[in-house]
Every structure is written in C-alpha cells, then in structure tokens.
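Hi all, posting the design record for the shared folder.

TITLE: backbone redesign
STEP: 1 of 1
STRUCTURE INPUT:
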C-alpha cells in the first residue's frame, strides 16, 4: 500500500471529510498504480433515488444480484426502490431480509419506500407505523392514483404523525389516460396516444397544495416538463419542505427519439419536447432540481419487441448514467462540484441517510475521458434496453470502493 499519497491533493477535493478519513487502502493502491497525468475523478459513492431492481416479483427482467452488481459496478452503493414490486412493499417485517439480500447478493445498500396506501390502491392508509419500524426511509404510492383528494389529504396527515417523508411521482391518470408518448407532433405523426404535460403538472399542483396544508416533507421524483420546474421553483420560494429530481435520460433524450417507433425510448413519464428539456437543464443548473436519479428499469429481450404501444416502458440506465453525468460537466451544464451534489450528497440528504452514508463511506473512481461503446457485452445490467445502444459514450466508472 502506498503511504505517500496526499489526501489534500485535488483528486480528493470532492470527498466529504468523514468519507475521506475512512477511505479503504484499496483506493490508495489503485491511485498509486495509475499512470501519471491521467485525468481521473474520485467521487463519493453515488446514491440513486429511484431504480427498479425487479426483485421481488419480476425476476425475468433482473434480480437483486444482477442489478445490484450493475449498480455497484457503475458507482451506486445506495439505491432507493419504490414500493410497486410484487408483492407490494407494505409489510415492514419483510423488509430487513430484502435489504440483507441486496447487500449479500448485489453488494449495495438498499433503501425502501413503503406503500403509502394499503395495496397501493389509494383507498386508505397503509400500516405506516409498521413500515417505519421496518426501516422504510419514506412512503409513496408510486405512480398509482388516489381514489380522491380527501383520501390523499387524510393519508398525508396520517404519515405526518409518524414524521415520514412522502415521495411523489406526479401523474393525473384521467389526463394521461392510455397515453404512451408526449402529446405533440411526434406522437400525432406516428398515431400514438399522447400524454399531455398537464397530466403531470395538475397532479403536482394538487400535491404541493396538500404539502402546504399538512406541512409534510415531500420529494417529487422524475419531473419531466417545463411547467413542473416552474411550480417547484414557486414552492421553494414559498418555503415549502420540498425537493425534486429528474431522470438522467430526460436531460439527453426528447420525443424526437421516438422517431420510427423506437420502443427503446418508450418510458413513463414520457420523453418530452426540446423546450421541456432545456427548462429541466436550467432548473438543474439554478438549483431548483436537487438531484438526478437513474430511473433504472431493466427489461428482458422480449419486452421491447412488441409494437411501440404494446411494448413495456422502461430504460436500463445504470450503465450509461456516469457517461451522461460526465457529459453534463463537459457541456458546462454543471460544474463537477454541482454534479457531486446532484448524484451523491443531495440524494443522501433527501433519502435521510446522510449519517449512514458517511459512516459506510467508500469512493468511486471515474475516468471522464474514457470512450466506450454501448453493447450487450459492455453493459453490466441484465437489461439491455437502452436508446443509447451501439453509441459511443465518454466517461465511465473505473472502480467502486466499498467503505
């Protein structure tokens, strides 16, 4: 082990002091072996605020072992999963075993969102006390609707009594309908049923008003349109206890990528317009958007082979995440310091795991100049469903170090 490396050197600048002090010796060994002059980033472990690992219930697409290993190999040591698995994550007594298997099989720390309503049916509150006791970091109804606004209000009031944060995925089903693409020229040209942007903002508006009424801490995940960013800016200016994130692919893809019925670009919420994308980028840069999640949804080889509207929505995002993150810095959308906030430190705060995060430690070594091609062989995830397939990207995780 090298003992001559200086932890005050620039490569260590982006690590919190607590993590820097507990770096494993393998970090020093790796840095000592690197060729001189090679540009590298040493980052804190990545924290993903929304990923579907497909277990339990959909192991034909992925498992805790396959997707946990893919997460870790791409720098994510902490992963938050929503409650809409099979069975639904509403029994606090079963969650410990799930976390233990994620750590033993996949090598990651799993953080669970419990079901906000029983069975995610939107009719009555779940056993929130039991979920908190079982170690849930927050509760959510995923993208499932509430039967009415009164149920939403009462459920939030109930969650507030336990001090539980609520994660929202804004979507008004009566407006979204059976839509599969952003409502615009591309959807019309291809004869695809559209999802108007207002389906997101109507739900978001209601949920923000409920947050104001109940005082509950809330996080809004995977915002996708300009008006949503404007609403979040208003809510933060008003001092509401809210945060939000956007999926990485929304920063690079638009509904133009659906051209030719490209099912690989079918995702919910849908890829929006270029105007929406530019507004999201501005919101990221000015701090309105707190974090970037992967929204990783691996699928097997048959899930995207049906006609566009009949295929399964979702993009496998672990493997391309860091390259796209590097591009944000190369394009000067974010500084490296801002990027670390968006994909490491802020997500840990939002998930309420900052103390555990620093205690566990670890680090991620990134080569921001490494060029590689997205192929089945180069992807670690079981899911090869990505619109970036066969493209050359720049930037990749070289090694992930556990604390």
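Okay, here is what came back for every position:
SEQUENCE:
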């Amino acid at each position: 082990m090298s003992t001559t490396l200086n932890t005050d050197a620039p490569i260590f600048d982006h690590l919190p002091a607590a993590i820097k002090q507990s770096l494993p010796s393998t970090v020093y060994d790796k840095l000592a072996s690197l060729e001189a002059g090679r540009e590298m980033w040493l980052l804190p472990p990545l924290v993903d605020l929304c990923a579907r690992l497909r277990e339990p219930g959909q192991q034909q697409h992925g498992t805790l072992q396959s997707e946990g290993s893919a997460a870790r190999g791409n720098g994510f040591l902490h992963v938050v999963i929503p409650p809409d698995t099979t069975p639904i994550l509403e029994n606090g007594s079963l969650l410990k075993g799930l976390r233990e298997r994620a750590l033993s099989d996949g090598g990651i720390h799993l953080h669970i969102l419990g079901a906000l309503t029983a069975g995610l049916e939107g009719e009555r509150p779940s056993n929130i006390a039991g979920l908190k006791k079982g170690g849930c970091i927050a509760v959510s109804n995923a993208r499932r609707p509430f039967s009415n606004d009164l149920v939403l209000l009462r459920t939030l009031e109930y969650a507030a009594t336990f001090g539980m944060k609520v994660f929202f995925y804004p979507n008004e089903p009566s407006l979204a309908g059976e839509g599969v693409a952003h409502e615009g020229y591309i959807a019309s040209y291809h004869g695809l049923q559209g999802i108007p942007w207002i389906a997101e903002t109507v739900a978001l508006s209601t949920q923000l008003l409920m947050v104001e009424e109940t005082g509950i801490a809330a996080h809004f995940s995977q915002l996708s349109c300009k008006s949503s960013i404007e609403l979040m800016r208003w809510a933060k200016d008003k001092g509401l206890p809210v945060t939000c994130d956007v999926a990485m692919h929304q920063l690079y893809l638009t509904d133009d990528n659906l051209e030719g019925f490209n099912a690989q670009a079918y995702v919910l919420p849908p890829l929006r317009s270029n105007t929406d994308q530019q507004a999201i980028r501005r919101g990221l840069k000015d701090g309105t958007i707190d974090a970037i999640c992967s929204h990783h949804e691996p699928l097997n080889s048959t899930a995207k082979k049906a006609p566009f509207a009949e295929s399964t929505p979702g993009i496998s995002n672990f493997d391309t995440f860091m390259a796209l993150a590097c591009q944000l810095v190369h394009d000067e959308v974010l500084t490296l310091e801002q990027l670390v906030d968006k994909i490491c430190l802020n997500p840990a705060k939002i998930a309420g795991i900052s103390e555990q995060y620093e205690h566990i430690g670890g680090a991620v070594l990134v080569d921001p100049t490494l060029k590689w091609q997205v192929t089945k062989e180069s992807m670690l995830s079981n899911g090869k469903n990505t619109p970036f397939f066969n493209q050359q990207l720049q930037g990749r995780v070289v090694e992930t170090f556990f604390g």
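COMMENT: The chain has one domain: 14-402.
Let me know if anyone wants the other runs.
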